[in-house]
Each structure stands twice: as structure tokens, then as C-alpha cells.
Specification:
By secondary structure, the chain is an alpha/beta fold. The chain contains 19 helices and 18 strands. It folds into 2 domains: about 300 residues, no CATH class; about 150 residues, 3-Layer(aba) Sandwich (Rossmann fold), CATH 3.40.50. This is Processive 1,2-diacylglycerol beta-glucosyltransferase.
Length: about 475
Amino acid sequence: MPVKRRPQPPVTGGERVLILSAGVGSGHNSAAAAVHQACATRTEIAEVQVLDVLQVSSALYRDVVGKGYFVLAKGLPWLLDWAYDVSDAPFWRRGPIDPWTQANSLPVIRAIKRFQPTAIVSTHFLPAQLMATLLMRGSIDAKTAVVTTDYDPQGLWLTSAFHSFNVAREEGRVELMALGLPADRVAATGIPISSYPDAESDRVVHDVPHILISAGAAGGDYAVAAVRQTLHMRSAFTATVVCGHNEETRADIEKLVGTDDRFHIVGFTTEMPALLRSADLFVGKPGGLSASECMAAGLPMVLVNPIPGQEVRNGDYLMEQGAAVRCNDVTTLGWKIDQILREPGRLERMQAAAKKTGRPDAAADVLTGLLDGPRRPIVVTRDAQKAILAASERRLVASDLRGDSALVRLTDPTDNSTVALLKADELKDLQKRYASAEGELVLRPDQTLASLRWEGRRLIRAVLRHDDSLRVRIDPLPHAATGASQR
């Protein structure tokens, strides 16, 4: 059986960065835009391209994926909550992408071939999974980064191959390392947000607190109820209400407040950075990007109407940091805000907590980790993925696994980067063919590759890239506490 032709080294002339997103809500595309903006600070980047993978998919696929999520969020939130919990299991979804998604990915693959990227950043799990498939096939020779866009790293984002995996907070990094992912491949960068040079560096000081009420880009019914409840507040305040593209929501709110000069009502606006800096308190949903922008601006949040799953978890984290409170029933919103404003020093403490939580340099950190990081990907074999899933179901960390189920790492000694995570019994298969006298492995795409198990062939193809051989070191998994302490 002939060895498949491996990809050739990328074209020279500077880095070519492709940023892949998916327009499910606005957060994933906003994160992509932030990474695009950060590329301007890297002199080695010659060209950048951003692609929303749903925009080049079929209309049916775009509607099912893009709109179906919000239909469930509004009409069947319990089903969305259930689906989130199911898909949160690590490596629950293994193997190549499903045929329908694969068919809709063909335009993306063609775009990759035309652009010839040297680096690919994915801000949605769909392109992240596609990039892993292409890496394992040896179809691309680009560094790849996965960038999560919520504060909890959902298991659905985990893929079989990548160069860097970026999560929003340190606890998420510790969680992934407990699953077995190596410290050198997981970074707590924060969620990428755009920077605005003209934005005020310090918060605007008001005579009375200024509240920013957001209905989101599409406009939300809860915003009308939120404004109605602020009318019952006893504390002095002013408010800006952002209604997004929903003209019906805007008309309802304008009718509700009438001539009350405490309120300023706007539709969709590109001035959110200035509004965030001029507000003292934010009222809205805890989407990953909205929350990150508020935290970077030092703006605490009153959370209303979170979508089950990731937004609820986002809110939990913000409340844990002291940067938010949640209003479980919008009818108590006015009272909740009053409690914050009337307690001496509480608003200021929440603002300080928000500023401490913010990660305004996340986009730049993502690029640094990718472009300056290892040139080879890490491969997580399917057997390793199954072991990680089984361990998580038993509430075990990866280092608790023993015998043939134990996980081991293959390390490139030239830069001490982990290039593979596999089970002990898979390692035995490789050792029979590639063991060196020094106890290391020398991986090669020679004729014995044909007699390897299919997963072993995939691993060697992805790790070697366009090299003829690679000497790797065999390392056991560190103890969970030791691994979590690494930076």
C-alpha cells in the first residue's frame, strides 16, 4: 500500500492567517474580528482572511445550525439545556465530521486550498472539528488554534488534533489538563475582544449611576420587561437602552418610557465600547463576548434571561468573581439594582472585580501562542479519547488510569512540545516498529506504516507533516496536581 503524499512546506513570504467562525449569534464572529484586528500588530503576518463557514454553506444547513439554536433557546430551553449537558462530555463526539456537515464543508476546504494559510484560528467548534479532520488526513500544513468563546470549556470543542487550545479562564485550563491534555497545548488567554484606541481608559464619572440595558444585537423581549422594572426603582439613575436591530422592541420601549428624560433609547449601534466605558452597571444576557467586553471595561453586570447551558455557566463564573448578580425573575430587577446602588461601596467593589476579571489582550495572546508555539500539532488518538470519556464518567482524572488504559504522551525533545496523547496499548504497537536503543521512538512513514493500525497511521501522518522522521520521547502523564501547577 503506497504512502499518501504528504503536504509540501507552505509558501514563503510571511504568515498567512485564516480565521474561521460561524454566525451562530454574534459572539463567534466578534471573536474572529478581534483576532483579525490583533493580526495588525504582528509584523510577520503578510495576509489575513476571515470566513464565516455558515455563509458559504447551503441555506438549509445555515438555517438549521444558525437559527435552530435560538428557536430552541426561546421555545424549548429545557431541550437546549439537555443537549448542552450531553455534548459537554469530553470527546463525546469522536471521529470524522458527519456526512451532512462534511458536504457543507467543501466550500471551506476549497477556500483553504486557495488561500494556502500557514495558520488557522477557529472561533467555533464546527471549523475546529473540520481542521482536526484535515490535519489527521494530512490535507493541511498550517498551525491551528481553537478559541473557545464562553467561560466554561465545553467538551464539544475538543478535537483530535490542534496546535493550541485557548480557554477563557484558568479553571478551564486546569479542567482540560485533568483530562490529560498537556500544559504546553492549553492556554487561559481569555475570550478575544476588539480594542478601541479612542475609547476612554478610565470610567466616566456621573453624578448619578448610569445603567446600560442591552437587548442584544437581535433585540430581546426581556429588555421591555427590564426597562419597565427600572421605572419602579427608588434610586436616582439614568439609562441607555440598546435595542439592536429589533425595531418593534425599540418602539415598545419608547412608548413605555414616554418623555422620561432619564432614558436614552438607541437601536443597533457601533458605539458599544464608548457606551460600556460610560456606564456604571450593565443589564443584559451573559453571552461570552458581551461578558468579556464588560469585564475588560470594568463594568459589572446584572444578568437576566441567560440561555441554558453556556450563558448560565458564564453567569456563575462572573458571580463567583463578584462582578455580577443574577436576577432570576425580571420582576425583581428594579429591586435588585436598588440593592446594589444603595449599599455603600458595593458598586465600586463590583467594578473593581470586573476590571480584575477582564482580559483585554486575549486576541494578541491567542496569536502569540499559535505563531510562536510548536510547529507540530498534538494528536489525541480515538482510543485515548474513549479513555478520557470513560474516566470523566467515573469522575476520574486522566492520571488515575492504570494498565493498558493508562495514557502516555509522546514529546518532541527539540522543543519539549507534546505531539501525541495515546493509550498504553497503542504505544506498545508503535514500540514494536519504531523503538530506538535509547528507549525513544523514531517515527517514520516507511513501508511498515501500512501494517500499523489505522489510528497509528493517522497519528504518524499528522505529526510528521513534511519531515522524513521524528525522534520522540515517551512521557507518562504527570500527577493531576503537578500538571495543574505548570504554566
